[in-house]
Amino acid sequence: MNGQGEKRTCWNWWYLLLVVQFLFLLCVPSYNRLEPSFIGLPFFYWYQLGWVIVSGVLTAIVYS
Amino acid sequence: MADVNWTALTIFVVLFAFITWLGFAAAKWRAGDLDLLHEWGLGGRRFGTLVTWFLIGGDVYTAYTFIAVPALAFGAGAIAFFAVPYAILIYPILFLVFPRLWHVCHKHHYITAGDFVRGRYGNRWLALAVSVTGIVATMPYIALQLVGLQVVIGAMGVSGPGYANDLPLLIAFVVLAAFTYSSGLRAPASIAIVKDVLIYFTAFVAVVAIPIQMGGFDKIFAAVPPAKVLLAVPGPTTTGSYGVYATLVLGSALALFLYPHSITGILSASSGRAVRRNGALLPSYTFMLGLLALMGFFAIATGVGTDPRFAAGFKQYGNSFAVPALFLHSFPDWFVGIAFAAVGIGALVPAAIMSIAAANLYTRNIHREFINPSPTDKEEAQIAKWVSLIVKFGALLFIIFVPTSYAIQFQLLGGIWIIQTVPSVMLGVYTRWFNDWALLVGWAVGTATGTAMAASVNFAAAYPLAFGGMTFPGYTAFYTVILNLVIAIVLTPVFNAMGGKQNDATVPADYRA
Fold it and tell me: Which residue of B has its CA nearest to A46?
């Protein structure tokens, strides 16, 4: 049971890493723009595609 | 569309024949006794991380998605990209909530969300509400998979007089029904692997080759009308498109894993660990979805919308024809065959899982609960097999005889309905604080209000909520689940005070490894 308690406190901190994605992606006005563009893609598009990768990495960090 | 594209059609048919064989052969894969419901309907809970990845991938990224998301980009522009943040945020939710659901279901041999709610709250009516919601929300989803299949078959020039036009669809569906009946969940699990290889190949070739043909992404976006490239900036008294975008993302993300086919995919995993790992691995599909969404813009830039060769297709299928037209315009016939087969097979995988999931719900939470409480294992599996057939043919009839626009409206309603199970299922995994009757009232009010709101705006996704001189247009499902939750919170102490025994067949340890 002791081990379980330890695990829980440390999990709570890591969960914040998952919440971060919600904040960034739900704040739509922050990324609804054209510039800076990347390989011809407007910011709106490459920013959200970039978050796909970041989110995978964040979840992987929380997993391990 | 009088000319049949024989090269594409031949490749399409060959790939279909291959997955048909695979679907039947799958019965022997990690063989189990298919006369047991958890073997037929959950693949014996034996799928490891990789197969679960393919299976949930096949669930979430369906043929309808491949056709509809680019079609929305083609028609409405930037708003279609909501699919990307949506398909990002589903995974933190998957990671946090669903391993717990997996553990408790594994421990108590639950097969459906209805089983879980029945055990957690000891209330058969709440379980019935959750189960019926699941079945009703899934039906139009199956029907929409057929639309994807219909569009690609039509795009290859296959047509006939009257109802003979639907013959290829009928054949594809008989095949689907037969292998689902005989192999259960193992069939879509094995076919999902083929589907994904084809889809990945198609998406990456298309996203590299078409921009090269067109002279780069900047040229493509320069050809798109500026109003479609970004979301419209809202006026001073409204949250406008920003609010719509954000609530669509959050509402859709909350709803997704509550669909019965998603839960079936999750519960068939061999461990909670496999579910958790997939929270990190599945976003790779989301990246592909983003690439596919961009194809709506490619289609605008190539001018297929005004090309007389495709006029008949757009007339018949509307914007759903954008992706098929783009492929026909940009690629040789053999590649079109592969791409269309990817979409077609992408329809069969989720359709099979959805029909199995609906069958599991009916068998466990309606038939067993209300009609025959003690079937033998074999009877139970047999009922599920029959129900999966009925569900699929219902969807087929729907798509042949009812206009497609109705299926789309029903699917929108399905999203509003399924999200109403968030408090009972998703929060229920974490807490037993809610009173079961309060949850049931919340569910009923949320469902009724959501349906009325959607009808009042003629089944558009967004409802213009007016409050204090401001307008907050947003996704109806999102608004109504908040209403549902508030009601459940307010009524819980009231119902608790009225007494009644609080049952819970589960204990906290059941939710952990």
Answer: B290
What's the confidence (pLDDT) of residue B1?
A: 46
Distance CA B367, CA B386 (A): 12
**Partners of residue B103 in chain A, C-beta under 8 Å:** none
Q: What domains, with CATH codes, occur in chain B? A: 12-511 (1.20.1730.10)
Determine the Cα–Cα distance for residues B78 and B297; give it in Å rounded to an integer.
Answer: 9
The answer to whether A56 touches B280, Cβ cutoff 8 Å, is: yes
| Radius of gyration over every alpha carbon of chain B, rounded to an integer in angstroms | 23
- The pTM for the full model equals 0.90
* Residue B29 banded pLDDT, cuts 50, 70, 90: confident
Characterise B157 by phi-psi region: left (phi > 0), alpha (psi -120 to 50), beta (else).
left
pLDDT, one tens digit per residue, over A5-64 is 444 444 567 788 888 889 999 988 889 988 888 888 999 999 999 999 998 888 888 887
CA distance B220 to B15: 32
Facing residue for B277 by CB, picked from A26, A27, A63: A63
d(CA B284, CA B54) in angstroms, rounded, equals: 11
